[in-house]
Iron-sulfur cluster carrier protein
Amino acid sequence: MANLKERKEKVSRKLENIDNVIMVMSGKGGVGKTTVAVNLAVALALEGKKVGILDVDLHGPDVVRMLGGREAKVSAVGGEILPPEVHGIKVISISQFLDNDNDAVIWRGPLKTGAIMQFIGDVAWGKLDYLIIDAPPGTGDEPLTVFQNVEKIKGALIVTSPSIVSQDDVERAINFVIKMDKQVIGIVENMSYFICPNCKTKHFIFGEGGGSALAEKYNLELLAQIPLDSTVRENMDAGKPVAYFGTPEVTSSYVNLAKKVIEKVEAVS
Ligand SMILES: Nc1ncnc2c1ncn2[C@@H]1O[C@H](COP(=O)(O)OP(=O)(O)OP(=O)(O)O)[C@@H](O)[C@H]1O
Ligand SMILES: [Mg+2]
């Protein structure tokens, strides 16, 4: 088995062909990290970018299902893993290596690190403009491995809900990124408001102002406020990313997010 130094070198070599690595994270579970990661990837591809998405949520790998790639299998080429392309996006997740979608894998910390390093270093990603990484909730081994081994990472997008009550965990994630000496690219507020299909007014079901309060506190930009819409869940469950298949409101919020990310990330490169 390759030692850590060799693995790290392999990862670095692979990253030479990947311009921008962005992690999507949050201290909180269930706020829509995976939904945002998948749809940002699709929206970036719609902007003409070459995109890959890597799922490092080893306990709850949802990326492939949400992207709509359950039928797409990985293959091998020249000793490397060839990622399947779904909607033009190269995708790698532990779920592609399990016989059954519901298989539980027991991971100890070092195994997680090894798996994540392989998912970058041993995968034939080719040339990419963006590699989006979907992290599990919190600030554990998975985001730590990425930050410690992907030196050129552009930073993290922090996903939050609009509820001020839930901000403590999200702030922990922001502070984690700062402590790792990486950049918080911006805040994405998900489930921001619900537009009543009858009266067309906005209802702030999970409260209002959480994303902007966070952005202000940490001097960050609130890059998007994505509406709460039952068609988001329905489409994502069916593997139909809403950046493409969603309502005009939802689709445009992702297109705008992608444009802002491109603006922010490519301005500093
Ligand atoms: N804007 C939205 N409107 C309606 N439903 C949404 C929205 N965003 C996400 N969802 C739904 O909320 C659920 C949780 O989303 P998701 O799995 O993306 O969250 P997560 O933060 O990645 O969760 P975990 O912490 O488990 O990884 C999913 O069923 C998803 O379809
Ligand atoms: Mg998730």
